[in-house]
Design a protein that fits this description.
With about 350 residues, the chain is an alpha/beta fold. About 30% of the residues lie in helices and about 15% in strands. The chain has nine helices and twelve strands. The chain has helices spanning about 30-60, 135-140, 145-155, 190-205, 220-230, 250, 260-265, 290-300, 315-335, and strands spanning about 10, 15, 90, 100-105, 105-115, 125-130, 160-165, 210-215, 235-240, 275-280, 305-310, 345. A hairpin with a 2-residue loop joins strand 4 and strand 5 (about 105-115).
């Protein structure tokens, strides 16, 4: 006689089953069990396939290459689903511009151009480096100006524009670059106004004086404001980043007073004034006092439009980068800006039929 199988208690919805009922059997006919099993397997396979598809889409939805074409609606609909009201907005990815290099009378000039070229043309901003600096300081020095412009254009803080980065140091006989006609023969003012500006307007689709700005750091900030004051109507926006406002007498000689914005700003007719930004670093103990005095001067003149600020940092790119960013955001509000059409990466989307 074979040994009798040992009964094992099983759990039922009503409690533990007695030993004689421990081996549970399906009371339904066999074909019903098989049918239920088939339905279960079909549904499980369908849900597994849907999950695999969504998983692959999630893994492959990395950052895409920026495009200049107009972006379509940022919503993907599953078959039979209505548009989700809680869709997550796309995050704009900046479209990098390109750099064009050329020379004017032997002096190197770099131009940073946007990807898009809206009609009828583009605004232009000239960026002047400081004394003993070079044009490459705007990227290598710490500001990373091209990347900053890309981000601000992509987010609508700044309209697409051309950034002109001239090099005033190479071939300059003066000990440093002050962007003026100095007594030692460095005729940078004449070169800038008579040669560089016309060359840029002939080379690129610019909008002329109405959308031409100029900015600079330190001695470049001095040069930007001095050039704008000495040539009214040439520039429609000016920014001085931790600049100085008194010309060095050892460089300008008898023309020192005529090249000192602290002395010439008051003589500019009100109708010829331009939007002016003046920034300084809070720890710039060497030059902050000049910015403070000049700020008080232009406020007393009721200069408008005017934006002044003091940012954390000494006389270096830590402060200048903040000043550049804030001044360009202000420029965008003055000249208008709209987000450019760029490729984007969406955040994880909710269930398509939720």
């Amino acid at each position: 006689m074979r040994p009798r199988p040992v009964a094992v208690n099983r759990r039922s919805p009503q409690g533990w089953l007695p030993p004689e009922q421990g081996l549970w059997r399906d009371p339904r006919p066999g074909f019903v069990s098989r049918y239920a099993l088939i339905v279960f397997l079909v549904c499980a396979t369908a849900f597994a396939g849907l999950g695999l598809t969504m998983g692959l889409m999630a893994r492959t939805s990395g950052p895409t290459i920026p495009v200049a074409s107009a972006a379509g609606p940022a919503v993907m609909l599953a078959p039979g689903c209505a548009a989700a009201s809680n869709a997550v907005p796309f995050i704009a990815m900046p479209s990098p511009g390109r750099t064009d290099s050329f020379t004017v009378d032997g002096r190197p000039v770099h131009a940073y151009l946007p990807v898009s070229r809206p009609a009828p043309g583009l605004p232009v901003v000239y960026f002047l480096h400081g004394s003993s600096g070079t044009a490459s300081d705007w990227d290598d020095g710490g500001a990373h100006l091209p990347a900053m412009i890309d981000r601000m254009v992509a987010t609508g803080q700044l309209p697409p524009l051309i950034a002109i980065l001239p090099d005033g140091y190479r071939g300059n006989p003066a000990p440093g670059t002050w962007w003026g006609n100095t007594a030692d023969g460095a005729a940078l003012e004449s070169w800038f106004v008579s040669r560089l500006v016309p060359a840029v307007d002939a080379r690129y689709p610019t909008l002329g004086p109405a959308r031409r700005g100029i900015a600079g750091v330190s001695a470049g900030g001095f040069g930007a404001l001095n050039l704008a004051l000495r040539h009214p109507g040439t520039f429609a926006w000016v920014a001085s980043y931790s600049g100085v406002f008194q010309a060095p007498a050892e460089l300008f000689g008898s023309a020192t007073a005529a090249n000192s914005p602290a002395l010439t700003a008051g003589a500019l007719p009100t109708a010829r004034r331009f939007p002016l930004y003046v920034g300084a670093g809070s720890d710039d103990w060497e030059f902050r006092s000049e910015s403070t005095a000049f700020t008080a001067l232009v406020r007393a003149l009721h200069w408008t439009p005017l934006l002044t600020e003091t940012v954390p940092g000494p006389h270096d790119w830590g402060a200048w980068t903040v000043e550049i960013r804030d001044s360009l955001a202000w420029l965008g509000r003055l000249w208008g800006g709209a987000p450019v059409a760029t490729a984007a990466q969406p955040a994880p989307a909710p269930h398509p039929c939720r």
